[in-house]
Specification:
Blueprint (H helix, E strand, L loop, with lengths): L4 H13 L2 H53 L4 H15 L9 H12 L12 H48 L2 H7 L11 H19 L8 H12 L15 H39 L1
Helix pairs in contact: 2-3, 2-4, 2-5, 5-9, 7-8, 7-9
Length: 286
Amino acid sequence: LEPTIPELLKAKYYYDRYNCRYFAPFLLLFIYSLLGAWIFYLVEYENEVEMKLKESKDLDRLRHHSFLRFLDLFQTKRDLLLWYEKELEKVKLPEALEWDMWGALFYVGTIFTTIGYGNIVPRTITGRALSVVYAMIGIPLVLAILSRFGQFLEHTITRAWLKHREKFKRAHKKTKKYLTSFPFESLFRTIPIWLALLFCISWICACAALFLIWEKRWTFFTSLYFFFISLSTIGLGDVVPDHPHMLILMFWLVIIGLSIVSMLLTVIQIKFEECLYNFMIRMQVR
């Protein structure tokens, strides 16, 4: 049965009342992540199993062949070791995360956040083609979420800031003097830049401290450096965590962090518009 118009209006009322338009995209991204992880798991897992089986057979054959060559060709252990290492590089697969469901979920996170650490990559043509298609959908989705959630953060923090400022003015009973000193205060539509910057720096430091819970060998600076490189979506890959599956949590921290950066850029834009508008008013007064 199709929903009636009152039911649709009621659903829209609760949708707007609880600000679902800000959080629904996160649910959509979560479902999109699970769907992508499941698809890449189906595409890459069997291929990885076959490659590991082939690797095992090649290693056994290499060991046997090495023993025979040792008996027939080589006279010193040094020559045997050099030959073995050279052949081993041809057979051994590159170190990477495994294509289980967690590995696939980690991979789709590197796609739609555009970080791309490179420690897990598709090896099949189908997987690479799907990566292109998945990125074409996932990256715009994340950008839309960052823009919407950044606006939500800016509006929410601004309301709290203005409310706190009004309480501060009433507490000190200097409202009249305050308004006289700042005739254009009513034009201020957002939080100060320093406060938005403080939120951004605090988030980076808090997430860096969070990583130290499971990355025991890291210093705080190493954790701070790793999260900043991830937040800036550079993804150098020079710092590798000992628990890579925990990076799945990091992707959501990065998305929230990028939303805070988006909020910071919005605040800077609004402040620039305020300064320009105030300058134009002062010029007209003169």
